[in-house]
Recover the amino acids of this structure.
């Protein structure tokens, strides 16, 4: 479950939202207490009022661990590195070892993205079952600063507040 921790600065009035891979609201509350303790100015923790926190989509990056192509290796590293650096949760799927996943990937790449000869180059990126694109599409979305839209993710997490607290 991906929860979001929120707090309000009493000095500046700024509200902050922090994604947190926690298992429960109780863990989220303890994280909030730790942040308040470490902070040098007064904060009000709103985490006990935050309930949702939406459904997390799974980004899948289809890669190969066995390739002689430096370009493919660099492209895979670039995509994975970017996702890790930006704390975007994803799953690597190594099609070298998983025949069924490789076939699924090939079947789910749109025809207009299929090469005339051979197989599509890796990495290929999906959000659940929705095809996002290949490395070239990913690179273009980075250049255009539209990676979240490319991945089908909201750049601002939606948080619902439960009434009655």
């Amino acid at each position: 479950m991906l929860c979001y921790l929120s707090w309000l600065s009493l000095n500046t009035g700024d509200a902050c939202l922090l994604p947190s891979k926690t298992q429960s609201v109780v863990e989220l509350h303890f994280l909030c207490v730790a942040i308040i303790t470490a902070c040098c100015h007064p904060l009000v923790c709103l985490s006990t009022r935050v309930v949702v926190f939406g459904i997390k989509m799974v980004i899948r990056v289809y890669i190969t661990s066995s390739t002689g192509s430096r370009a493919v290796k660099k492209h895979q590293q670039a995509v994975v590195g970017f996702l890790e650096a930006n704390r975007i949760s994803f799953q690597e799927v190594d099609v070298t070892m998983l025949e069924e996943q490789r076939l699924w990937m090939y079947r789910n790449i749109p025809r207009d993205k299929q090469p005339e000869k051979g197989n599509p180059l890796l990495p290929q990126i999906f959000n659940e079952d929705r095809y996002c694109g290949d490395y070239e599409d990913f690179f273009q979305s980075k250049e255009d600063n539209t990676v979240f839209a490319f991945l089908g993710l909201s750049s601002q997490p939606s948080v619902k507040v439960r009434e009655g607290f």
User: Anything to note?
Assistant: The radius of gyration is 20 Å.
